[in-house]
Amino acid sequence: MFSPQSTVWTRVNTFRKAESIMRLQDKVCVITGAASGIGRATAERFATEGARLALNDINEVGLTEVAKQFSPEQVITRVGDVSLAATADTLVGEAARRWGSVDVLVNNAGIFLFRDPTDLTEEEWDHLMNTNLKSMWLWSRAALRYMIPQRRGSIIMLASMSAFCGQEIDGVSSFLYNITKAGALQMARSFATRYGPLGIRANAICPGHFRTNIIRHLYPTEEAIDQIFVDLGKTAPLGRPGRPEEVANAALFLASDESSYVTGHPLVVDGGVLVWQ
Ligand SMILES: NC(=O)c1ccc[n+]([C@@H]2O[C@H](COP(=O)([O-])OP(=O)(O)OC[C@H]3O[C@@H](n4cnc5c(N)ncnc54)[C@H](O)[C@@H]3O)[C@@H](O)[C@H]2O)c1
User: Given a cut of 90, is residue 14 above it in pLDDT?
Assistant: First the structure.
C-alpha cells in the first residue's frame, strides 16, 4: 500500500475529501428553460449538490411546479421570454444581488422546428434564431458581467448532436435547428478562447434523442411521442433514447470543479448515435 507520505496517498485523500462535499455547494447557477425536460432535470440534479438556483422559463405553471421542490432560500425564478435581454438581465442581476456571485450559466431553453429550407419563412427564421441562439448570447452577456470581475465561471450551452450533421427525420429537415445548435457550439468555443485567460470556462453539451416535451407540438398524443423516441433510440448503439437526468449529469460535470481543465469542448451525450452513422 501507499505510505501516508506519498504523493499518491495525498491524491487519494484529496479525492476522498472531494467525494464527501457537495459538488456545487453554494454555487449560484442560472438555468434557462427549467420548467421541463433537460432544464428541469438539471435544476433538480444541481439542487442535490447544494446549488443556489436562478431559474427561467416562459411556462409559468411549469416553472412554479419545479421551484416548489426547493426551499425559498435555494431558488429564485423569472418567468419570461428567454430571447429578451430584459429577462436575462433581471434574473441574473437578482441572483447576483441576492447571493453575491454568478458561478454557472446553463443556456438550455430551446425549441425545435422541422422545415425544409425552401418552406421556411423569415418569421420562423427570426423566431428560432432568437429563441435558440440569440438568447445564449444575451444570457452569457448578462452572466459575464459578473463572471469577468470574479475571475471565474462556467457557461454551458445546450447544443445538439445536430450541430455535427444535417439531421432530418422522416424525410424532413431540421435545417435551421441544426444551424442554431452549430452556432451554440461555436459560441462556446469563442467564449472559451476569449475568457479562458480570465478563468471562465465555456462548453457545449450535444445530446442525441431524449424523451422530453421538445417535439410535443408535432405529434397528436403522448403515446405517439413515446413511440417516436423508442424508434429514434434504436438508431443509437445503446439501443434506447436518453433520459434527461443523463444530460443533467453531464451538465453537473461541466458546472463543477471536476471539469476545471475542460473548456471549448463539445460533450456528446447521444448513446453513440454519431459514431454509428
Ligand atoms: N430532447 C432532445 O432530444 C434534445 C436533443 C438535443 C438537444 N436538445 C436541447 O436541449 C434543450 C432542452 O430541451 P428539452 O428537450 O428539455 O425540451 P423541453 O421542451 O422539454 O424543454 C424546453 C424548455 O424551454 C422552454 N422554452 C421554450 N421557449 C422558451 C422561451 N422563448 N423562453 C423561455 N423558455 C422557453 C420551454 O417552456 C421548456 O420548459 C434545448 O435547447 C434543446 O434544443 C434536446
Answer: no
